[in-house]
Design goal:
By secondary structure, the protein is mainly alpha-helical. Among the domains are: about 55 residues, no CATH class; about 70 residues, no CATH class. It contains 16 helices and no strands. Helix 14 runs antiparallel to helix 15. The relative contact order is 0.05. The N terminus is likely disordered.
């Protein structure tokens, strides 16, 4: 309640809620959107943003409930369909997610986000060629955003098309020099092409800013091992394992570059081989 028991102004609450979203405090934002909806359950803006906030705090079933309510009155809202698809995918309902993205694309054939999310989903289903086609569509619709181009490069890398992937990441880095994802993936592809010294230059540059990035530390360890600099590789591997033991041990055990170290006592102790 406001002053002397009066209702709080819903626009003031909305402003505060959106501020919470911008400050990456979605849980607090949900409480504020609930206040707006308590005063006016038909406020579609509050309901939509509540769904977005619920997605961010991983309450996907609750988010789907919000999006379904919105679709009752407007079943062809591409933005709502797309975000329902995200919630469905995170909830493990892949088929329903795919259908949501398809419906969003039909509703708005120029909606790049739906093409991007569909491409990501297809990649996770190992449908790499189809994923590339869909991601290309997202890029053609909105070439200003780098996310689809970065993901295209990741898919190309999975397909062992490393030169194409490298070109993709280099293009992103030229257009968006502060895009750390693209810069890191550039290093990964250089390593995949056997250009480990150049890859290490990339990894070292990133670690100047993000010294605790476990993926970069692991990638650097891998390249050091490829260059037969085993003591340095093992020290970096130790650092990576200290930050994420379960995942890094799994990766190291399966990594062909580390096969030569399988009889090394320090390596065996680190990865629990």
């Amino acid at each position: 309640m406001g002053l002397f028991g009066s209702k709080e102004n819903p626009e003031d609450i909305r402003y505060n809620a959106m501020s919470m979203m911008e400050r990456n405090q979605p849980k607090a934002a949900v409480s504020l959107f609930n206040k707006i909806l308590k005063q006016d359950s038909s406020d579609t803006g509050a309901l939509f943003n509540k769904g977005l906030a619920l997605n961010q705090i991983k309450k996907y079933s609750d988010a789907i409930t919000c999006f379904d309510k919105l679709l009752e009155s407007n079943p062809n809202d591409a933005q709502v369909l797309n975000n329902k698809g995200i919630a469905m995918a995170e909830n493990g309902n892949i088929q329903a997610a795919s259908e949501c993205y398809d419906e969003a694309i039909v509703a708005d054939p120029k909606y790049a986000a739906a093409f991007f999310n569909k491409g990501v989903l297809l990649d996770k289903l190992q449908e790499h060629e189809l994923a590339l086609t869909v991601l290309e569509k997202a890029i053609s619709i909105d070439p200003r955003k780098p996310n689809a181009m970065v993901y295209k490069g990741i898919v190309l890398g999975k397909m062992k098309r490393h030169e194409e992937a490298l070109n993709c990441f280099q293009n992103v880095c030229r257009k968006y020099p502060n895009n750390q994802d693209a810069f890191f993936q550039k290093g990964v592809q250089l390593a995949e092409l056997g250009k480990h010294e150049k890859a290490l230059d990339v990894f070292d540059e990133i670690l100047k800013k993000y010294k605790d990035n476990v993926n970069v530390i692991y990638a650097k360890s891998r390249s050091k091992a490829a260059l037969e600099k085993y003591p340095e590789a093992l020290e970096l591997l130790k650092q990576a394992i200290s930050r994420n033991p379960k995942i890094i041990r799994k990766w190291a055990k399966e990594e062909p570059i580390f096969t030569v170290l399988h009889n090394n006592d320090k390596f065996r102790a680190l990865v629990k081989l």
